[in-house]
């Protein structure tokens, strides 16, 4: 790899790849969990390991795309799971890289679904058709329709100002003193994270249950 870079060296790696989907835990087959772990978590780890020798050599930066959804979930637990895992990977990596002068930064966007198109709207019919017979026996189409409407409404509220996230990525790469975490989110989203961090789990569960019931 070294022969492909100039004397200025390999400075920055941005792990941005990610996929998202909606669905309650039992609605998704094991193959989907494996695919998400492979892309969202192991994909970033593979890239990091491949470039680690260069990043150590040139005292570079590694930036990871996480999400505020690492702290809580509203219908997309599979995505939350991978983002929470990448956060912990980064926490270990950041401490280990200090001695080499390599800085590790995490970007935590709020809802930018309309900017990224990471998650297309899902129809209740589409979800229902993919359910196993066991899940169809537990849930009904009306419930699936309610969940789909709820999740699609969240997607429609996403910010279109994707440049805010890009600005955070640039700062993480170029700032003389980058932050360990850049939370780029609306006040309401930051408040949810605060409740999740400071209050007992039962309180956060009540808040999210209330939101889901609306």
From TrEMBL:
Keywords: Membrane, Transmembrane, Transmembrane helix. Pfam families: adh_short (PF00106). The keyword Membrane applies. The chain crosses the membrane at residues 62-79, 191-212. InterPro entries: NAD(P)-bd_dom_sf (IPR036291), SDR_fam (IPR002347). Belongs to the short-chain dehydrogenases/reductases (SDR) family. This is BDH protein. It comes from Quiscalus mexicanus.
């Amino acid at each position: 790899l070294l022969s492909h870079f100039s004397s200025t060296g390999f400075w920055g790696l941005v792990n941005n790849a990610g996929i998202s989907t909606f669905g309650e835990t039992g609605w998704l087959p094991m193959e989907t969990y494996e695919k998400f772990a492979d892309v969202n978590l192991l994909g970033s780890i593979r890239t990091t390991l491949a470039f680690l020798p260069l990043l150590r050599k040139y005292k570079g930066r590694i930036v990871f795309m996480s999400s505020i959804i690492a702290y809580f979930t509203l219908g997309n637990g599979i995505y939350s799971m991978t983002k929470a895992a990448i956060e912990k990977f980064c926490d270990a990596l950041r401490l280990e890289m200090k001695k080499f002068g390599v800085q590790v930064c995490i970007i935590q966007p709020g809802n930018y679904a309309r900017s990224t198109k990471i998650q297309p709207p899902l129809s209740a019919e589409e979800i229902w058709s993919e359910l196993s017979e066991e899940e169809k026996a537990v849930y009904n189409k009306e419930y699936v329709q309610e969940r789909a409407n709820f999740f699609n409404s969240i997607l429609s509220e996403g910010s279109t100002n994707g440049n805010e996230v890009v600005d955070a990525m640039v700062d993480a790469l170029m700032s003389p003193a980058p932050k360990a975490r850049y939370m780029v989110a609306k006040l309401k989203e930051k408040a949810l994270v605060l409740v999740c961090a400071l209050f007992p789990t039962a309180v956060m569960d009540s808040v999210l249950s209330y939101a889901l019931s609306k």
